[in-house]
Amino acid sequence: MIWDALIACYLFLAGMGAGAFALGAIAGWGKDPALTMKKVGFIVGPVAVAVGTLLLVVDAHAGLQNPLRFFYLITNLNSVMAWGVIILSVFLVVAVIDLALLLVKKETPKWLDGIGVALALCVAAYTGVLLGDAGAAFPLWNMAVLPVLFVVSAASTGIAVVALATHLLAPAEVGRVALLKRAGLVLPLVEGALVIVLLAVTAGAPGSAAAAGQASVAALVSGPYAVAFWLGFVVVGLALPFALELVRARKGAAAPERSVGADVAHDGSGKTLALVGDAGVLVGGFMLRYLVVMAALPVAFM
Amino acid sequence: MSDKRLGMLIDLSVCIGCNACTVACRQENETPLTKFNTWVESWDAGIDGRVTRANLPKLCNHCANPACVKVCPTGASYQAEDGTVQVDPERCIGCKYCMAACPYQVRYQLESGEVDKCTFCHHRTTEGLLPACVSTCVTTSRMFGDLNDPDSDISKKLAAAGDKAKGLMEDRGMEPRVYYIGLDETLGAEQLSAVHKGGNVLRRREEGNA
Ligand code: SF4
Ligand code: SF4
């Protein structure tokens, strides 16, 4: 195993941070801005991405012992990792400035938010492209599917972590961002579909990648990673949050007096459902990165 | 472009799987325990109802289109003037991206964090010597030289072999510059045993001593 759980944590944190920042920005844009949510997103975003980047540095042993070598990091611009370093750095600078403005001046320029959201998208996609560029060696790391899958998962986990904190800090704000209701139902479906596509193209990898592709898929669905895949990712990460969201949507529909846009005064059980669902999404988001990193077999695995 | 392109040609029909190359390489390059720059994979193969021993020496392919060089963010992995792929340990941060990207999985990480692999004995070839594995090979299965020089022994043998000479997993797009004669026969034969990787012996002894 070349990369392990540490790199999976990095991929997860970078995605979650990017998603959280983007949601924070969007939450502040509406007519009736959800300011706690914005603050949470703006704090979680850069912190998660920074911690993730730190893990990457810690994993690079030779650099850790000779820190000056990190200056070489952007010498080869053919390398996806070099671009990643640039993207992560610029995102962190923009996100931290935006956060500082929010804390000091209580508002942020929309254009800066917009740049931050664009960079967040780059961060999320980059984590997939990073693995994808080693796809010639690891058929599971498919360049066509992974970046999109990781962006969708970044959106889910970013929303989940911000919603989780907002449920606890300012429950009234959660109902204000209309986007969230639909996201909770749509994203798990999209993510599930993308994972099916990923497994299908991996299992069907041609030529010298065929054996490793099939073995990687088998490791996930029926091999050593099957429990983590089915229970950790599919059930806890996708099915459970989706089901809970469905229950909450039904409840909302059954109580029409809580009109859309009005602050929904959550009853106790609704809040618990939401918290459990959000936690499930976070577990699933980590499991996805972990499984994609760990279950991948190289084409030369004989 | 560099006018030199060093490469290797391994004639599988004469390789007897003795692992003399494996040993010579270890002595020459002092690779760490359990890590190998070259090794021989051997297994029982069935051809037309007969059982024979298949032997497949492996090493870095010094690819002409190497993923390891493309992905290396620091430029530590690079293509040298002579077409070989080298690692500059002074630049390597140990991110392991090259290890992940190499379809042949020939790279490993040193205790100190840097990544290493076969250099085609760069320190020897620049002095006019052959790589240790080539000069030690008891059946002259391994041949080494400049692929861009049509008069070199390796170019002549490659030309004579025509499309019988092939690289490993050419569909990975790396353009490997280690060629094999008899690769299709070796890989096409029915595999009748587990694969013995030259070097397992050492690992077992090491564990036994621990
Ligand atoms: S075999 Fe692997 S390490 Fe060697 S040049 Fe090719 S891609 Fe790079
Ligand atoms: S481990 Fe070293 S040689 Fe390999 S990609 Fe990273 S910096 Fe380059």
Automatic annotation (TrEMBL), chain A:
Record flagged with keyword Transmembrane helix: yes
Report TM segments. 6-28, 40-60, 80-104, 111-132, 144-170, 182-205, 225-244, 279-301
Family annotation (InterPro entries):
Electron_transfer_protein, NrfD-like
Q: Does the keyword Transmembrane apply?
A: yes
Pfam families for the chain: NrfD
Protein name per its UniProtKB record: Polysulfide reductase NrfD
Subcellular location per the Swiss-Prot or TrEMBL entry: Cell membrane
Q: What keywords is this UniProt entry annotated with?
A: Cell membrane, Membrane, Transmembrane, Transmembrane helix
Question: Its topology with respect to the membrane?
Answer: Multi-pass membrane protein
**Recorded family membership:** Belongs to the NrfD family.
Q: Which organism is it from?
A: Adlercreutzia faecimuris
Taxonomy, superkingdom: Bacteria
From TrEMBL, chain B:
Q: Which InterPro entries match?
A: 4Fe4S_Fe-S-bd, 4Fe4S_Fe_S_CS, ET_IronSulfur_Cluster-Binding
What UniProt keywords apply to this chain's record, in alphabetical order? Answer: 4Fe-4S, Iron, Iron-sulfur, Metal-binding
Which positions, given as ranges, span the membrane?
none
Pfam families for the chain: Fer4_11, Fer4_4
Q: Where do the 4Fe-4S ferredoxin-type domain residues begin and end?
A: 6-35, 49-82, 83-113
Question: By what name is this protein known?
Answer: 4Fe-4S dicluster domain-containing protein
Per the UniProt record, the source organism is Adlercreutzia faecimuris
Please spell out the taxonomic lineage of the organism that makes this protein.
Answer: Bacteria, Bacillati, Actinomycetota, Coriobacteriia, Eggerthellales
